[in-house]
């Protein structure tokens, strides 16, 4: 996916611009709040404008090497350089209120040496009356975009500049058309062992040291003549860990987390691996939450089943069935399996589940069928919600991957989460959306 990276000195307004670009409502904030830090670390989000999507990366303040005498600043600089290396477009955000400083010129020089496409954006131009603030920055580039990340002044022009740089969708190669499966989970739950078993050969490094796999690695495998791309990701550590003092080890793990998020974005289906001995922990819930928020298909694998004593397997299976309902209720559509990467127990069931998820993921239902359901279940039904009268009019499907539906009502503010869950249940039961995530949007009919 096209990637836009925002860089600049500390306090130039990068995070404010990031939030505006990804339209940081509660849903997006839930993702960015999970990422380490606010000013030190990389924040990652998905932006959608005019039917185009692109990745936005918010970096920490861009310190110079001279300012980076301590290890934290050095690691921050390395993080930013890593993000820049993956960028298709860089936004150099300049502080129009503070004015031009030598560091801005140094950063601009370094960005030019990357050969990347760069937009020079002067922030804190809150109104046309402040346009004189940009004059100093013409020494960096004759093409400057004035902007106020807070008020939105100049924002439409910036978005237009970004969108015109996103290439049209090209016909994909055969490998790009293959179903993509991201193997995700905490460190040391057995992800690489599972992917090696699925591949039938030792493709990944397997170690008892948590976080051995630090990068996403793609491998193509074949199951009964059908090919799939498996993406092995670095283990995602508990997020409180990232708030501790940075060390070289922590820095590597932070980059691994960033790459794991990108792997989930690339995938059609995520396979969440959980340790059968440790059970479902808080971080497993958070990873599942990231997958759910990105509306990807999900399969849950309870791994290391070979370590469960034979006389306890039935009891343990019932325990996990209850635990999944209780702790992962928000992905109640996701199938789960008890497996062993070591002895390959039930791993052959993964690919048929992927196929079924992808079939549901791409399913379309005609508007006539949808409204036949609405006429049977919701026509002329008037609900009271917080003293407001709520009436459902009609429904239509507007997209797939995931199946996305728009429901028209008389009063959008009266629609509560329980109403949406009820409609989702109707759709799943009526049209057999068994394992796919579903997105339901509410619109008020004028």
TrEMBL record:
Q: Which Gene3D superfamilies match?
A: 3.30.300.20, P-loop containing nucleotide triphosphate hydrolases
Residues bound to GTP 1 are 58-62, 123-126
One GO biological process this protein is involved in is: ribosome biogenesis
Key word Nucleus present in the record? no
A family per Pfam? KH_dom-like
- Which positions are annotated as binding GTP 2? 185-192, 232-236, 303-306
Which GO terms label this protein's molecular function in UniProt? Answer: GTP binding; ribosome binding
The residue ranges of the EngA-type G domain are 179-362
How far does the signal peptide extend, from start to end residue? none
Question: Which keywords appear in this protein's UniProt record, sorted alphabetically?
Answer: GTP-binding, Nucleotide-binding, Repeat, Ribosome biogenesis
Has UniProt tagged this entry with the keyword Transferase?
A: no
Q: Which NCBIfam families match?
A: GTPase_EngA, small_GTP
Q: What job does the chain carry out?
A: GTPase that plays an essential role in the late steps of ribosome biogenesis.
Quaternary structure annotation from Swiss-Prot or TrEMBL: Associates with the 50S ribosomal subunit.
What is stated as this protein's family in its record? Belongs to the TRAFAC class TrmE-Era-EngA-EngB-Septin-like GTPase superfamily. EngA (Der) GTPase family.
PANTHER family in the record: GTPASE DER
This chain belongs to the protein called: GTPase Der
Give the organism the record lists.
Answer: Thermodesulfovibrio aggregans
